[in-house]
Request: fold
Amino acid sequence: MRSNPRSRFPELPRGALAPILCAAAALLWPSTSYAQPCCAGASVLTPARLTPLDDALVGLQFRAARVIGSFDGTGRYVSAPSGDNEHDLQQDLIGTVRVFDRGQLSLSMPFLETFRAARGASEVGGGLGDIALSGRYDAVIAGEHRWLPGIAVLAGIVFPTGKPLESASLPLGSDSTGTGAFQGTIGVAVEQIWGHLFANLTVLVLQSAPRHVGSVSETLGLQGTASAAAGYVFDSGGAVALNLVGMRSADAVQDGNSVPGSARNKTLLGVAGAFPLATRWRIQGSLIGDLPLQSLGKNEPATIGLSLLLMRTWQ
Reply:
């Protein structure tokens, strides 16, 4: 059973996507202490999410990641062998619009490039990745009520527009850019603010559709992701946050039968920052990586990565 060929990207959960996962920040309005944490909490942990002051945005995100090792089926961490290395680059064109006052829809189109070296050979490949559509509805906005936290419902779908691993033409598979299957996600996010401080808890559940490779039908196991974060908003309009992300999946299914030992785990720790560049422009960035400790990962590569997102918003 093949695991997700793009799972080596260490992402915070993307809005309603898993991966879905992953990390960034937002334009912060320093006019009042209420607006600062509200806007920060709205975006510091999710790329290209609208703040309550925005109606639409367009963003370009750049990400770079390096594989530093891997976790085997028992959870043991192993450093990358000498001479074997992988560097991944990704550019995401993202657009978000507000719908029904408290809702928003986001579309993300990724382009990926991979440099891979193993067993004395090296190659570079890439192309269009899996396009993702996600939605969010804020039933309660953080700071709207004195004691009640913000509560949002999340949903999303990933389209298999990238090239799956079995369709790769290069020997090391560096031109693989997608999962080869539709993926659907649902979840909930809870946020709270206390003056300049804010906290967020996001829980997502992702299910992949079956896909067929030759005569074999295979489905990745049901996947759950939880992200807990806390941050601080400065009077200058900048913000920082720490984020801990845990992903766990069930065993994969092949031809209707569970595949023992194929479950996947990841545990990541990240820091994100935000800075307003101008009235309608903002920049956000993050550093996140797998914790290379025994039993904190399973059947997954361990990576460390940087991201930078430049956005233009409209009211």
Summary: Confidence is low (pLDDT under 50) at residues 1-39. Helices lie at 35-43.
